[in-house]
Amino acid sequence: MITLNSPLDMHLHLRDDDMLKIVAPLSSQDFAGAVVMPNLVPPVATIEDVKAYRDRIEKAIGNDDFEPFMTLFFKKEYDYNFLKEAKKYIKSIKLYPAGITTNSEGGVSQIDTDELKETLNAMSELQIPLCIHGESNGFVMDREKEFIPVYETLAKAFPNLKIIMEHITTKDSVDALKKYDNLYATITLHHLLITLDDVAGGLLQPHLFCKPIAKRPEDREALLNIALSGDKKVMFGSDSAPHPKSSKEAPGCAAGVFTAPIILPKLVELFDSHRKLDNLQAFISDNAREIYNLIPLKKDITLKKEEWEVPSDYDGVVPMFAGEKLEWRVI
Amino acid sequence: MITLNSPLDMHLHLRDDDMLKIVAPLSSQDFAGAVVMPNLVPPVATIEDVKAYRDRIEKAIGNDDFEPFMTLFFKKEYDYNFLKEAKKYIKSIKLYPAGITTNSEGGVSQIDTDELKETLNAMSELQIPLCIHGESNGFVMDREKEFIPVYETLAKAFPNLKIIMEHITTKDSVDALKKYDNLYATITLHHLLITLDDVAGGLLQPHLFCKPIAKRPEDREALLNIALSGDKKVMFGSDSAPHPKSSKEAPGCAAGVFTAPIILPKLVELFDSHRKLDNLQAFISDNAREIYNLIPLKKDITLKKEEWEVPSDYDGVVPMFAGEKLEWRVI
User: Fold this and answer.
1) Among A71, A171, A308, B156, which residue's beta carbon has the most beta carbons within 10 A?
2) What confidence tens digit (pLDDT) does each residue in B164-216 have?
3) Rounded distance, CA B31 to CA B19, Å?
4) Yes or no, beta carbons of A217 and B140 under 8 Å apart
């Protein structure tokens, strides 16, 4: 048995409409809160959007035992007054380079420090963290590495801005993270478990296809080392990204791994197998509280070593480890 | 208009049974001959297998206007006497590292020069080329590079053996090829056109998933340069590898791109766009004749600049460029 205090998922896609109704309860039952990404169509970019989306999420969950940490889709037009008001409703702002992932077409096409200065200075002053999907438009295996200079420029130009490198997947990002006090990162479950070999090294596995794409064995090793260490600069963010089975198992398969229902069992198994269970509380909650300066809902989640089989799908959404047996279960 | 004399496909998968009937006519109508790979289940590993498979191929084609160049699945048990007899029926022998691609489970698990000596010396003496699927069991992007020392060891140990590096995909292989007189290579159409970005850089495209996986932009560039130059050490080998649509558009998607019906139009377009049409005859036929020391059937294939639309599938097998318009057509 192991009990986690107020586990937090600091990077989650809850989608909208029917998909929201399928996936939101699966996160809310295992977590005390989650940072909800704003890449809907159209993106969540006004205070009204945030409030309305939060209402839809709460309705889909049906209880107040889970807190959605709302985010705004970064726009360089956001000024101090807007952000001051927005801060009552959001926990962070997410910046997407244009066209880099699902529904990011309205993102920022060039990261120009000068152009973003007013907004980023206001965010620094108001202590609103900036979450970034850090990929260039380059070759798929190089995109994250190519984006690192942008992180470094921003970290130096805005030393009081907390910058979250979202879903890092490379050793280079782990190294960059350590160099700047105001850089932090989320790490997904799947990037701790898989490499490109699992996606395309044997037969092709569309349900493991995601952005950023899983990288090399030495990259996974670096992610695993920093996550298992409980290092205060990294926190768990699942990037659980549901797509209907029909859009995953077809040409033009959408990017995203749906991990929400199996996160805690697999994280416990992983940390336990490396004899690092003592550091899981930091990775799954405590580090996030400090980085985001938040006090989560009090919610204890207990897991027991008891085998269960992951369903083949949840209303047409195929989870990671579908049909496989897991060692730990949430009770 | 352009006329190609006796185009040859020096690496082709014709499969068996119903699939053979679907795909064989598509290659035979555009080519004078093709090296037919022996990775059936069970593999083509006896003279009787070769003769019977050749009969089935000829029956599927239904005319004598195309010559299947038969191959044996490499076994270290093949001795001089066997090979001397086999040579009447085959053009080369294909070596697969065990488990590296479709139906290669019966391949060689360790490439031990000493252990293979008798067979490879006999092949040298009998002038039977050795075709190799050159990949290690390592990380998917490194497998070809990791295999290069094996090519080099073999090239040095058996200087009179013609060794064909099949379907090379990397700059490293192009460089290695140039270092040894007895190393040659086939290059596919798809590896001249795509990189990993086309497979997994945007949405995931299972019909472009193949082994070896498409690599980096600089790798494609190196392949393109040597192919377009007409260099005598490289020849065209499509590795056209049909799989039913149902096994491509599903989790556990099989590796292989089905290019047979669109090869010549796309090669003409490619060489033409680089103003290298004059070198296509070397790449598509003349180099292969010298490397394999063969005289192909006389067969002129003419292409005309006339738009046509590639069918969405050929009896359930989806070709590369399905549903797209091509500039050149075979008349």
Assistant:
1) A71
2) 999 999 999 999 999 999 999 999 999 999 999 999 999 999 999 999 999 99
3) 18
4) no
Q: pLDDT (tens digit, 9 = 90+) per residue, B78-98?
A: 999 999 999 999 999 999 988
Q: Which two tokens stand for residue A199?
A: 């996606």
Q: How far apart are CA A130 and CA A164, in angstroms?
A: 6
Residues of A in contact with B139 (CB under 8 A): 195-197, 201, 216-217
CB distance A21 to A60 below 8 Å: yes
Summarised one tens digit per residue, pLDDT across range B127-174 is: 999 999 999 999 999 999 999 999 999 999 999 999 999 999 999 999
DSSP A206: G
Distance (Å, whole) CA A145 – CA A135: 8
Residues of B with CB under 8 A from a CB of A: 139-141, 195-197, 199-201, 203-207, 209, 213, 216-217, 249-255
Q: What is the pLDDT of residue B109?
A: 66
Taking Cα atoms as reference points, which of B51, B53, B42, B102 lies closest to residue B75?
Answer: B42
Q: What is the pLDDT of residue A303?
A: 98
Q: A222: part of which helix (H) or strand (E)?
A: helix A217-228
Pick the closest to residue A220 from A262, A266, A268, A168 (CA basis): A168
Catalytic residue from among B239, B278, B300, B313: B239
Domain covering B2-330 in this structure, CATH number: 3.20.20.140
Rounded (10°) CA dihedral A79, A81, A87, A89: -100
| Run of H or E including A198 | helix A196-200
Domain ranges of chain A: 8-262+278-295
Question: Which positions in chain B touch A253 (Cβ < 8 Å)?
Answer: 203-206
Alpha-carbon distance of A191 to A214, in angstroms, equals: 6
- How far is B76 from chain A, CA to nearest CA, in Å? 26
Q: Are A60 and A25 in contact (CB under 8 A)?
A: yes
Read off the pLDDT of residues A49-90 as tens digits, 9 standing for 90 and up.
999 999 999 999 999 999 999 999 999 999 999 999 999 999
Confidence of residue A188 (pLDDT cuts 50, 70, 90): very high
Give the pLDDT confidence score for residue A3 in this predicted structure: 98
Which secondary-structure segment (H or E) carries A69?
A: strand A67-73
CA distances from A164 to A11, A232, B222, B301 (A): 10, 13, 38, 59
Name the one residue in this structure whose structure tokens are 């499969």: B15
Percent of chain B at pLDDT above 90?
A: 94
What is the sign, positive or negative, of the torsion defined by CA atoms of A73, A74, A76, A82? positive
**pTM of the model as a whole:** 0.95
Q: Where are the alpha helices (DSSP H) in chain B?
A: 17-28, 47-61, 80-86, 113-126, 143-157, 171-179, 190-193, 196-200, 217-228, 245-248, 263-273, 280-281, 287-292
* DSSP structure string for B258-325: --GGGHHHHHHHHHHHTT-GGGHHIIIIIHHHHHHT--PPP-EEEEEEEEEE--S-BTTBPPTTTT-E
d(CA B108, CA B105): 9
Residue range A214-257, pLDDT digits in tens:
999 999 999 999 999 999 999 999 999 999 999 999 999 999 99
Q: In the annotation, is B181 catalytic?
A: no
Region for B316 from its dihedrals, namely left if φ exceeds 0, alpha if ψ lies in -120 to 50, beta otherwise = left
**How many CA atoms lie within 13 Å of A42's alpha carbon, on the beta-carbon side?**
9
Q: Which CATH class is domain A8-262+278-295?
A: alpha beta
A135 to chain B: closest CA residue: B201
